[in-house]
Write a structure and sequence with these properties.
This protein is mostly helical and about 90 residues long. The protein has helices at about 10-25, 30-45, 50-60, 80-85. The chain contains four helices and no strands. The two termini are about 25 Å apart. About 5% of the residues are buried.
């Protein structure tokens, strides 16, 4: 399920850099921002194999769970990525 995300008070230089990357990759600024966020998440959790599907499955399993703590080691993402998600 896709949802909306609005980022307030983003530094202009960051938006400009995302815009340049978007142009080089023939994407909209929105598509580029999503791609960059996905890449950053994959890098932080250190996922292997089919990364996006594993991350999506993990997030779907924990979406809406009241008081859920992100402990991704249970999902096979390796040791102690909780700190990476919290930072």
């Amino acid at each position: 399920m896709d949802v909306d995300l609005f980022i307030k008070k983003m530094p202009g230089v960051i938006k400009e850099l995302i815009g340049r990357e978007a142009f080089e990759n023939r994407r909209s600024v929105n598509q580029e921002a999503i791609s960059l966020l996905e890449e950053a998440l994959v890098a932080r959790v250190g996922a292997t194999g089919n990364k996006r599907k594993r991350i999506e499955a993990y997030l779907e399993g924990h979406a809406g769970a009241a008081g859920a703590t992100p402990v991704m080691a249970d999902a096979g993402f390796g040791a102690a990525p909780q700190q990476a998600l919290m930072s």
